[in-house]
Amino acid sequence: MAYPPRPHHEHDRAKIEGLLRACPFAHFITGGEGGLRVTRLPFAVDVEAGEVRRLRAHMNAANPQCNALDDAEALVAFSGPDSYVSPNWRTAQDHAGTWDYTAVHVWGRVRVREDRAFFDTLINDLAAAAEARFQGLSEKPAWSIEGVTDDYVERLRPRLRAFEIEVSRIEAISKLHQDFPEADARSVAEHLARSGHEASRAVSAAISQRLTK
Q1: Taking the domain 6-178, which CATH number applies?
Q2: Predicted confidence (pLDDT) per residue in 53-74, tens digit
Q3: What long-range pairs does 183-191 form, CB within 8 A, spacing at least 24?
Q4: Could you tell me the residue ranges of all domains in the chain?
């Protein structure tokens, strides 16, 4: 039996890119002599000809995961909205509860970058995406690296390890009640829409969007 089940495979390029940009704070996983290591990091996404080609990020240079980072195989796990689904919300209640969610898993090879131009662009791209999400919380203009001194940047760079990942494989999952009757999916969406949890309401919206196609 194939896993994830075929109905849960997501192939829509726009949706995949959209999740990576909307939920950039991902689990960065690599292996080495000390075994598997994981750090949560925000990632910048490079898209070429409609395909996700590259991820960029940086981490604290003191992090043990930086050891043997260059040329390492990596998995980056991005998580979209998720929510518990109660059997009580379906027409038939003889199945157990489940969890609906969206996620994108990206595999690739790491390349450490030490050049200043890469570092400056990375910091600006990460900041621009984050600043846009929180626009309006301050009267000040959006922050960028141009707002700090060159001396500060040069003191900061050795403390960070900047890198890029050339993407070799992507697995995108949308588990949104595709394998249940439409009446059940609609009922689940209606219940989640009334939830006090933002993620649950987002899952409701995703289920409803799927049903309207």
Answers
A1: 2.30.110.10
A2: 999 999 999 999 999 899 999 9
A3: 183/91, 184/89, 184/90, 184/91, 184/92, 185/210, 185/211, 186/211, 187/89, 187/90, 187/91, 188/85, 188/89, 188/90, 188/100, 191/86, 191/89
A4: 6-178
